[in-house]
Amino acid sequence: MTHKRMIVTGLAAFAVGAAGLSMFSYAEEEVAIESPEQMAFEPEAGEDIDRGDISYALGYRVGLDLRQQGIEYDVDTNEFADGIAAALGNDDPRMDEQALMQALFTLQLQMQARQQERGAEAAEASRAFLEQNREAEGVQVTDSGLQYRIIEEGEGDSPERGDTVVVHYRGTLVTGEQFDSSHDRGEPAEFPTDQVIPGWTEALMMMKPGAKWELFIPSELGYGERGAGSMIPPNAALIFEVELLEVK
Q1: InterPro entries of this UniProt entry (predicted)?
Q2: Of 33, 148, 180, 239, which one is the catalytic site residue?
Q3: Catalytic pick from 197, 217, 232, 239?
Q4: Please, are residues 217 and 239 in contact by the beta-carbon 8 Å criterion?
């Protein structure tokens, strides 16, 4: 398989598989944690679902995945539907194999260029914010560069690496744009301390149950140069308000 074909195959593969990862997927080993909505849904046995609803749900999920990857601005939905219909119907595409590959490869290059531009903007905004924020009242800075402010102290034993914790949190960019919130989902998140971004791991191991902290996480302790989906650009510093509810 050529390098170009591998890139295009990878680009096409995310179209139906990417939506299940939460903000707490990180690693050296990626760990997918189901959302509360996924864990709570149990379809009834033998339940009849309209064929149109199934088709719409599948199309919506594919479209959502594409939007989360930042591709919505490049898609002509009429042409997109024609392409799906041709593939599902086993019809010959209106483009030959070389043209198909070239179109997807061009999209890949366009996405990379946009990500680089967003990354450069995020890096500058994050650098300026963290430089100013480290002097703010109540903000403490660790050797790694993590900044935090204690809102409530908490009491008891701090979690250790690998312990499972239960937290409520809200995450924003330095622009104030929210990208995730357990409060909005209506229930706290639960995960091991070593399966989150490094800034979270470091902070959680200093917190005590009942504590509420505000975290200011440099990019290198977050998602770094890769970013996360379309919401978190490369090189972005992250701000979290975290409440440690329980250590299991």
Answers
A1: PPIase_dom_sf, PPIase_FKBP_dom, PPIase_FKBP_N, PPIase_FKBP_N_sf
A2: 180
A3: 197
A4: yes
Where the chain has pLDDT below 70, the residues are 1-47, 70, 72-74
Residues with Cβ within 8 Å of 157's Cβ and at least 6 positions away in sequence, in order, are 208, 209, 247
For residue 232, indicate whether it is catalytic. Answer: no
| Cα–Cα distance, 202 to 178 (Å, whole number) | 22
Catalytic (active site) residue 180? yes
Q: Which two tokens mark 117?
A: 């531009």
The answer to whether 96 is a known catalytic residue is no
Known active-site residue 73: no
Tens digit of pLDDT for each residue in 33-68?
A: 334 444 445 556 556 778 888 888 888 898 888 877
> pTM for the complete prediction?
0.67
Domains of the chain by start residue, with CATH: 3-38+49-114 (no CATH), 124-247 (3.10.50.40)
